[in-house]
Structure formats: C-alpha cells, structure tokens
Recover the amino acids of this structure.
C-alpha cells in the first residue's frame, strides 16, 4: 500500500505505519492501577509505620506482612499498589533519608552512619544513597557543610543516644541519689 507516487506507506491519522510483511498489532490496554480499600490501607499503614519507626532494625518481608496481617505475596502486591513502590525500596529510601539527617547534623563517619540507619554493607549503602540523592554520602556531607556550615553534634553523643536503653543508666546524673533530691 503506497500513495500515488508509490514511495510512502499510507496510514490513518494517529496510527503508525506498519512495515511490509508485518501484521498490525492492536494497542493493548494498560489496566488501571487498583487502589486497595480503606481497611487494607489501614493495615498496610501499620507495616509502613513499623518501617518508619524501626528503620535501623533488620526488617524482612515476613515481618512486615505479619505486622499488616497479610501473607507475603498479598502484602507485597498490596503495598506496591497502594504506595507505588515495593516495601523494600520504601524502607531503603527511608534509611537514606535518615542518613541524610545524620550526615548534615552529626560529626560521625559514613561507615557509622551506614550502620546506624540499618544498612549492613557500606557498598550497598553508598550505591543506594547515590541512587536516591544523586551524590555519594561523602560528597553530600561536603556540599551541605560548605553551604551552611552547621555546628555538628559530636559523634560520641549520637552513638551514645543510638544505643538501646541509653536514656537513663544506673549511676547517671539524672537518677535520684539515695536520701536526697534528684541530681541536676
């Protein structure tokens, strides 16, 4: 099928030309993304809140699905449908966001930041950080400190407050002494 001059194939407006010898393939419909119902969203929110609260802990798909009251398969599909990304990607993005806060405000090494936010490997932390932020963790810190020159929190304070049970320890200054008023 060519026009009067025999040089170009004819097409209808809005359709692409089909090469000779090939059959036209009908356009396939992309199914609309189904948004989960409100009760499902409430249950998914429980798992998302767990990720936000316990981002530094090792969380796997089974733990998250159990928190939401779903099977692994159902949870993975429902989470992606509701939030547009897999649960693992959401968790690692949250960890990177927390790492950005630490890199801006604390004077600790990138390796310590990596461990504090829950990554087990410095290489995976650095590559995921670069994927999300567009810079390496070291470059991110350097640029932020050059622009704003914050007064960073000493690393010893960050590490002390990130340990479990570090709020009040026996013998600390905030504990009452026997027979007297609280120290302060």
């Amino acid at each position: 099928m060519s026009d009067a001059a025999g040089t170009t194939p004819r097409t209808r407006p809005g359709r692409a030309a089909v090469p000779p010898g090939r059959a036209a393939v009908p356009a396939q419909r992309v199914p609309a993304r189904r948004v989960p119902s409100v009760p499902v969203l409430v249950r998914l929110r429980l798992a998302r809140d767990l990720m936000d609260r316990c981002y530094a802990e090792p969380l796997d798909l089974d733990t998250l699905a159990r928190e939401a009251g779903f099977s692994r398969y159902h949870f993975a599909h429902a989470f992606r449908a509701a939030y547009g990304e897999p649960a693992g990607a959401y968790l690692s993005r949250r960890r990177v966001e927390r790492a950005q806060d630490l890199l801006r405000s604390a004077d600790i090494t990138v390796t310590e930041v990596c461990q504090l936010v829950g990554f087990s490997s410095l290489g995976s932390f650095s590559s995921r950080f670069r994927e999300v932020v567009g810079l390496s963790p070291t470059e991110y810190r350097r640029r932020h400190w050059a622009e704003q020159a914050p007064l960073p929190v000493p690393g010893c304070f960050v590490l002390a407050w990130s340990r479990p049970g570090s709020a009040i320890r026996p013998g600390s200054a905030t504990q009452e002494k026997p027979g007297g008023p609280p120290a302060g």
Observations:
- The chain has eight helices and two strands.
- Residues 174-178 have pLDDT under 50 and may be disordered.
- Helices lie at 38-53, 61-68, 72-83, 87-105, 110-116, 122-133, 137-148, 155-162.
